[in-house]
Amino acid sequence: MARPLRRVLSVASECAPLLKTGGLADVVGALPAALEPLGWRSRILMPAYPGLLHRAGRSRRVWRDDDLFGGPAAVRHAKHAGLDLLLLDAPHLFDRPGGPYAVEGRDHPDNHVRFAALSWVGARLAIEGTVDRWRPDVVHAHDWQAGLVPSYLKYAGSAVPSVLTIHNIAFQGIFGADQLDPLRLPSWDFHSDALEYHGLVSALKAGLVHAARVTTVSPSYAEELGTPQFGFGLEGVVAARRARGEMSGILNGIDTAVWDPAADPHVAPFSAGDPRGKALARRALLEEFGLDEPSGPLAVVITRLTHQKGIDLLLEALPGFIGAGGAVVVLGSGDPGYEHGLAQLAAAHPRAAGVRIGYDEALSHRMYAGGDLVLVPSRFEPCGLTQLYGLRYGAVPVVAATGGLRDTVVDATPERLADGTATGFSFGEDGAIDAAGLRAALDRARELHADREAWSRLRERAMRAPFGWAASAARYAGLFEELAR
């Protein structure tokens, strides 16, 4: 007789395909399907942002609270796109215009309250269960928005173990100590070994301290977080947990059913073994942006336009790349200065550079399919999914050698090209992630692209790289099993 499936409650601020602002949503949405064959069935708790209950379809109330940090709230159970969802319906916290975290570029001033409420409900569901008698064996909290879940479990004396996954340590959910009592946090734990962070409270630090185990999204990022350069003030806490064997780096995967060029409804089908549709996608992308056929490679950039993502490096390096025969298409939004700089680049090279400000999921699929290169010059990158989508679609990555980019892209050195292991181009192995290094990597990519046979071999190896969820899900399942025992 088969053993009953164990249960994991995943608590997160976003989940694809319901709502996505970045790679966190893709991970939260894809991991459950990979865990189920390994004996773990997931429910995902996330806020019911405007319109989400309607999109999710039929639902039923499974939990309620008459006063959740200032107003009534309920949790509604729904199933959507193969996901088992628990939607936190708290209009006083989540029914508002703008995105999940900000409106018109400004963070919601009560974000600490909104996501403390999400964490509180996650803990209560683990302790009390739902009206349909569902209780988790393990709680999996994601980033600072769910960082207080382990703390609330601890303060309640719960035996349900928790895992905190850090997707990006740069965002920590910091607020004043005057909020401890309103958010049901004990003042006696406001000290440097727990909630206190430079006189304030850090939701992420709380999770780092109180979770049974901590993971992050790539092995290299796990190492980097223990250093002042990448730890953003939490390197000491990270180093302590690593020293006790309580922190690990588990590389993200991608949903290979959603991201499959052979079955993608947005593009002409192609595969590593039959790449003919790739040429059709490339031609269609050039036409969509009104660009001429370049003599060199067509590069795509799909990213948030921020300093972390190295957009200033792109603005320095791309004019030379275009001048040498390349072309580029950009999709993203973010810093107004970078948006303006990219618009100027497109205006200066109207037949070789196209820019679309915003985000369009279908267009991103067409860009990966049509691009020869995908550019990811991030100054730090916990894992990165962009390069993984690029590999899958034969858009050969050009990346900075940091975090998960280092773990997933094998640089096309002469040795790696000769032994057949190269999958892309990287720069900054010496720690110097700058425009000169990006220019040199683009030059190498452009030169190899001119050798049609060598380029075809590299692209095929990239497309065959194994970056689904199977191996990573097995590590999560093993961790959950250890904690549940």
Report on the structure:
This protein is of the alpha/beta class and 485 residues long. The protein contains 19 helices and 20 strands. It folds into two domains: 6-253 and 469-484, Rossmann fold; 276-463, 3-Layer(aba) Sandwich (Rossmann fold). 38% of the residues lie in helices and 19% in strands. A nine-stranded mixed sheet has the order 3-4-5-2-1-8-9-13-14, with helices on both faces. It has a six-stranded parallel sheet with strand order 17-16-15-18-19-20, with helices on both faces. Strand 16, helix 12 (336-348) and strand 17 (353-357) form a beta-alpha-beta unit. Helix 4 crosses helix 5 (149-155) and helix 11 packs parallel to helix 17 (435-449). The longest helix has 18 residues, at 111-128. The mean pLDDT is 97. Pathway: Glycan biosynthesis; glycogen biosynthesis. Synthesizes alpha-1,4-glucan chains using ADP-glucose. One of its GO terms (molecular function) is alpha-1,4-glucan glucosyltransferase (UDP-glucose donor) activity.
Short descriptors:
single chain, 485 residues, alpha/beta, Rossmann fold, 2 domains, 9-stranded mixed β-sheet, 6-stranded parallel β-sheet
